[in-house]
Amino acid sequence: MLPSENRLRRRQDFATAVKRGRRAGRPLLVVHLRREDERAEPVGGYSDSHPHVAEGLPSARAGFVVSKAVGPAVVRNLVKRRLRHLVRERLTRLPAGSLIVVRALPDAANASYSDLAHDLDAALKRLLRTDPAAEAGSGPTGSGR
User: Fold this and answer.
1) What is the dihedral of CA 64, 58, 86, 70, to 10 degrees?
2) Residues 6+ apart with CB under 8 A from 107
């Protein structure tokens, strides 16, 4: 279970992470990350007087989307529990105040815990890069012209 201060609950926060954040797609899931340093104002109306604010920034918060396309309720809940546990272990890697939304794809229903962990780690590694040009493929293999 994620601590209360690390959960996304409001529709607006989910929408902000998905629409304004960066996205990394993997075969089992899609991860959206909205970093605090990419935002002009804090999401969710947090202020310095909010109890979960540390040094002016709230803790990283996570939300999950597991649609009926993944499977029946038992399967969806299993996938959500696995993803919550995986994200909880990785919250310290995320910048303070960031929002993360993990959307499970239908293949997540048949995936093992380690497969989900691998895809989540790969997506986070890509999203936490500091140089966006590195993702655009402007490396030494490009034509340069």
Assistant:
1) 0
2) 27, 28
The model's pLDDT over 61-107, given as tens digits with 9 standing for 90+, comes to 999 999 999 999 999 999 999 999 999 999 988 988 899 999 999 99
Assign 55 to helix, strand or coil.
coil
DSSP H or E stretch at residue 113: helix 113-127
Instruction: State which amino acid sits at residue 108.
Output: A
Q: Is the pLDDT of residue 53 over 70?
A: no
Closest CA to 39 of 122, 95, 110: 95
DSSP three-state, residue 37: helix
Structure tokens at 134: 């590195």
Residue with the two structure tokens 């310095």:
48
pTM: 0.76
| Joined tokens for residue 34 | 């909205």
